[in-house]
Amino acid sequence: MQKLVVIGAGMASGRLLEHLVERAPGRFDITLFGAEPRGNYNRIMLSPVLAGEKSYDEIVTHDAAWYAAKGVTCRFGETVRGIDRERRVVTSAAGETPYDRLVIATGSSPFVIPVPGRDLPGVVTYRDLDDTEAMIAAARRPGGRAVVIGGGLLGLEAAAGLRHRGMDVTVLHLMPHLMERQLDPAASALLQRALEGRGIRVHCRANTRAILGRDRVTGVELDDGTIYAADLVCMAVGIRPATALASDAGLACGRGIQVDDRMVTSDPAVLALGECAEHDGVCYGLVAPLYDMAEVAAATLAGEAAAYTRTETATKLKVTGVDLYSAGDFAPIGADGTARDEIVFRDPARGLYRRLVLKDGRLTGAVMYGDTADGPWFFGLIREGAPVAALGEALIFGPSVAGGDPLDPTAAVAAWPADAPVRRRCNGLSRACDPIAVAQAAA
Amino acid sequence: MNAHPRAPKGAADPPGAGQTVRTACPYCGVGCGVRATPDGRGGVSIAGDTQHPANFGRLCSKGSALGETVDLEGRLLAPQIHGRTASWAEAIELVAERFRSAVGAHGPDSVAFYVSGQLLTEDYYVANKLMKGFIGSANIDTNSRLCMASSVVGHKRAFGADTVPGTYEDLECADLVVLVGSNLAWCHPVLYQRLAAAKAARPGMRVVVVDPRRTATAEIADQLLRLAPGTDVALFNGLLAEIEARGAIDRAFVGQHVTGLDEALAAARSTGIDDVARITGLTRAEIAAFCDAWIGTRRVVTVYSQGVNQSSAGTDKVNAIINAHLATGRIGRAGMGPFSVTGQPNAMGGREVGGLATMLAAHLDIQNPAHRAAVQAFWQAPAMPTEPGLKAVDLFRACADGRIKALWIMSTNPAVSLPQADDVAAAIRACPFVVVSDIMADTDTMRLADVALPATAWGEKSGTVTNSERRISRQRPFLPAPGQARPDWRIVADVGAAMGWADAFDWANEAAVFREHAALSGVAGRLGMDFDIEALAELDDAAYDALAPVQWPLPRAGTRRAGATADGRFFADGGFLHPDGRARMPATVYRPPASTVSADWPLRLNTGRVRDHWHTMTRTAKSARLSAHMAEPYAEIHPRDAAAAGIEPASLVTVESPYGRAVLRALVTDRTPQGTVFAPMHWTALTAACGRVDAVVGAEVDPLSGQPESKAQPVRLTPFRAAWYGFALSRACPRPSAAYWARARGDGLWRIELACDAVPSATPLGDAASGTAGRGAGEAAGEAAGEAAGESDHTAAWIAYARALTGAAAGAEVVSVIDSRGIGVRLAFVAEGRVEAAFYAAAEPVALARAGAVAAF
């Protein structure tokens, strides 16, 4: 039986092991190292935990009993310190563990901005259950004040959770508007209005100079001199793939650990997957590609042919009452440096926003705010690469429109008698794709 | 709002709310009876008059919508002198003085009236009397010149008078009805309905439609003869030759009542059947089938309209048709005869009073000394012209070259409706003194007026009209005159009095005018003329008010007019009105339209009407229902011609001739034959940026009737390319700023089509995308830059443009869809939960079903 060592007990490795024990039962003697002293949980559900909507038990995916049942040796709380690829062993506090095949799934680390005071007690990142519990604990103190640095997806979820738990919350964001990667200024303004409506203070163009405090955090100072008092500072300014172990072992790394389509690193005995991996120049931070990678990696280990291809991703802002959905690549400027086509729908009165990004007549990305019900449909179009040019800008109104007949140009001619026969009438369509109808839908 | 200008003013007011008034429709020459019930708040409900013999209760779309056209929006409510409100006294005195001084300095022929088939008989009579009897010129012509002047001349050549021999019943009791150059279904809908009902009841009845186009009327046709434009004379000459060849000449009738058969036959025979086929483009089989049907059916009615009249050979076409009926004796009997259907509600009344430059009065002849003397004596007129005056086209040419010093236009819109309309507008502008009487404050012609005089409208005015079957009906008022508006006859009479002829222009009311007109017709009747309604000359006011629809001739009791038969028709037993009592058969020879197509001008432009609009739309454009049918000026183009010119369906097309251009929506269809383009003539500078089709049409005229050839102008088509195309809906009347636009009313909204040369920019563009009215796109955009937090300049510019166009309130929230691919803009302005305006723009004509958008608004 071959020895398989897996470093990292997060969502990627959990899914990998599920697939592997199904595809190649009994082939591997598996040892799982996990830095956190617990099993595997659904990390993307931490925000509901923070918000008090879910408990830890509800987000656990693989506990000790599951691993035991699958014959996996778990070494949770034990950090791997090195890899000797020559001898095919990994080193931890308990000594060396040999492997025939090695899987690195170390995930990523939150980025900590290099300012004075960043190590003070009361300064947390937002990455794991410990961070979450630290924040929950801080929120228990009445009148507590929190500063969240970072107005992206994670930072806003943290801010909403803390606010929900009763803290006075300020979001500091370096850029001119929130979630600038997903939203244009108009949509961002809608979001900011919604957050402010629930009592969250938002300060954009906020460049943190220092975190203040002697024994523990007391505030945050910006480079314009503004000071926000704080009992808790949460940094949510991005993540970095955790590649130190791999690069120390001499594996090829870019931003992440470079893998081929089979999830194999520069060492054929070693695989990598998840947020620590870099495939075709791209590192992922969302769950869908991790799951795809896990399936490919399991197949590779099982000796089956499989190839990973780029995964389109979709994400939802998990703030109750604020619906924001984004999918695919919605950068206004593509990787090739050219501006993408866009269709943008705005209804500021009703707090609605949609942005579709297109390339060569196909949808590559979508951002929706306010009403995200059509999100999965757009996500489907993105993944399928379906041609959508024929739908024109009506595409933005979603499947209720696009499911109808295509527009008959002759029906559009005012000169065409209303009572004359036309090949296809499309009154229903015209109604649905009309901003009039959209505007009146709420009335 | 100000005090309602329709507020009741006294005892002379028409009947009150809820009281039904029987009147006549003001649109086409069918002359339907209408029951109007005012609601007392300025509105009225409309129904067909079941007792009126023209329609027996039926109404068409236009007639049914009359209630939607009587509001006061846009009405001229007070006299204006150079744009300033003036009193009637001042306006009348000014008009009288300017006409008097022009006549004094330059003679009677230095002034002119251009009047209208929309005028009531009483109006027409007074205008004609003033010009011909007192000013002493025959320079009074009418828009009927554009409509049926060729029929008038054709009738006079054949019959010796302008007589319509038949009645509407003939269309119902004929076994064959031939419709020549008549889209009866759209232009005379109730007559068409009567025909269709008769055909349904009597399936043996046959209908032949002779028209280059496949119009809505073709739906009823057993045979559709799509002959080449303008070739009717060849077809009917072929028929006449065939009548003779088959021995179908009614020798007894011809021998007794007709002169000129041999010459007409010789001319007809000179065009052999092969030539007829070549000229008309019809197959020999089609021609033979037509001849079989026509010759083989004794009860045959040949109905004709503008396709015949509006031609440089219009008079010959009329006579070619009449010749076939004279040769077979098929005239004036039930179900037999030639039948001219007129376009206007009172074209016939105008002919009866002599309100054309070529007529005198009461069907009398201006060049006949006895007729002149009789009329002069009757009127006690100081001066009578001895020669015809200027016909419409020449009249405006005389304005252009300075011969006309004072011009009075009544109830018509020649800056739109005459051929070479741009030249006509320039001619009116060039005339030193122009008076325009109209019900509307703003028309293309009113914009050229020195003095604007407010006339009363349908529903307010009182008088009579005559329809196409010689039936006189009362138009009765059911609404008070608004503001200071006055009846046309009263305005003209006041000017006549102010010019010094108070005694001759002193009538107490319209009934008194009518009595004088009827009395004069008695004079004419005694001179042997057909038009005689002397029996009505003694009607008292009450009897006039109560006058039921009545068909002429109506001579004094105990007398009978020449040619008239006991059943209300003419000429069944001869009695033609030439001195010898015989009809004439002029030899007609086919000649092609005056202008020839060429490589530069390869297509013929055919103009006409649409079903739901009337003339220049000053009234029908008020109705949402009527505007829905055709909301934009358009051109029907054959698919092969469209392909050759690179014109896509629903794109915009420039239709151009040496005289002018129009920009129209392309409706690619084989309803119009290859080589021709059809465009409706209704759109004006008020309803479209460049939709005046008569600006394109050259002023070639029939040499006898002076009627313009409105259906054969050589033109070329080019695609009209714009940077973007738009469509908008708004509550307020849109103020377009665009190279192309066309606006129309909807129910509680306006709709507008647009095409612009430049995309709105956040920075002022100078004159880019500028238009005829309103502000430039750039200027408007600049004002609203930064309007919505976070909007791009691009989006803000579109929003600003749309706001300026639609008049949406500054506080309205904007729902937007902006597509960066080319141009894709959809905007809705929402205020207080209601959509105020919607705006769409695209790089191609906006692909959106208009009906759906309007319904959703």
Reported for the largest beta sheet of chain B, the result is: 7 strands, mixed
- Give the DSSP E fraction of chain A (strand runs of 2 or more residues): 25-35%
- Helix fraction of chain B, binned, reads 25-40%
What is the count of helical runs of chain B? 27
Number of E-type strands of chain B: 32
Radius of gyration of chain B: 27 Å
- Main pleated sheet of chain A: 5 strands, parallel
Query: What average pLDDT do the residues of chain A reach?
Result: 85
- Alpha-carbon Rg of chain A, integer: 25 Å
- The shape of chain A is globular
Strand order of the largest sheet of chain B: 5-4-16-15-14-6-7
Helical/strand content category of chain B: alpha/beta
The greatest interface between two protein chains, and residues involved on each side, is:
A-B, 51 and 55 residues
Query: In terms of per-residue confidence, which ranges of chain A show pLDDT below 50 for 5 or more consecutive residues?
Result: 402-433
Strand content of chain B: 15-25%
Distance between the termini of chain B: 26 Å
